[in-house]
């Protein structure tokens, strides 16, 4: 049986776990607390306590593929500092290691398209840490002979985390900035891209995983409101909106992120090529209960 190990079992990791379990894979994932371990186990995933080094080594010894989703902190990527020594102790060489990064590594491009080979120009501390984590993972991959891939993700949405929920909850925030667009991706399309890469590993591969249609946030909100039969929240000019510094930095970046490499190399196509298909699927799922 093929085995997937997930470091950081959250929204995206659980989507991949569901997909791979359906394909007959066994899944293990980190859990920091007994309560979280119970939640993970309830989903048919074997929890592995980070406080138990022997259990971690044993899980990695069986791993065919490893996904790292946890964000880096001031000390770097926690997945790298935890997993690399354990992989060495386990003498394990998984077929695939995927690291989830962010399209924030490109910085602001004033609405222009960016590709995987575009220069990195991170403008925030968080994005700068992602640049360093990407570099560290690729260097470890080369040094240890591991097949490491990097996936740069934009804003992630899906059931329970979309413009539909924000509108339904009565959010009045509908920020408008002339010329501003964002790329986004449905969580299930991330999972399908990762599964496609697992089937076609390429050491050092870097992929933008985004949908086909970057779009302004206020347009997406208006479409979500229309789907729910509600009026769109009134527009609020960006320069008049009160928001945390991190959110303001996010809004200061404007780019269109291309996904052609993932399509060409992985044979991947997003099931939800724009927010319209993605929101419609979420609404249908919500109505089914």
Mind explaining what this structure looks like?
The protein is of the alpha/beta class. It has a domain at 3-157 and 185-212 and 257-272: Rossmann fold (3-Layer(aba) Sandwich). It is 42% helix and 17% strand. The protein contains eleven helices and 13 strands. The protein has helices at residues 11-22, 34-42, 53-62, 78-90, 125-144, 163-168, 187-199, 217-227, 245-251, 260-266, 275-288; strands at residues 3-7, 26-31, 46-49, 65-68, 96-102, 113-114, 148-153, 155-157, 175-176, 184-186, 206-208, 236-237, 256-257. It has a seven-stranded parallel β-sheet, with helices on both faces. Helix 1 (11-22) crosses helix 7. The longest helix is centred in the middle third of the chain and has 20 residues, at 125-144. It is globular, with a radius of gyration of 19 Å.
Largest sheet: 7 strands, parallel
| Biggest sheet, spatial arrangement of strands | 3-2-1-4-5-7-11
Could you please say which CATH topology of the domain at 3-157 and 185-212 and 257-272 applies here?
Rossmann fold
Task: Report the span from N to C terminus.
Answer: 33 Å
Architecture per CATH nomenclature, i.e. the level-2 architecture of the domain at 3-157 and 185-212 and 257-272: 3-Layer(aba) Sandwich
- Number of discrete helical segments: 11
Fraction of residues in helix: 40-55%
Strand content: 15-25%
Secondary-structure-based class equals: alpha/beta
Low-confidence stretches: none
Average pLDDT rating: 95
Shape, principal axes of CA atoms:
globular
User: Could you name the CATH homologous superfamily of the domain at 3-157 and 185-212 and 257-272?
Assistant: NAD(P)-binding Rossmann-like Domain
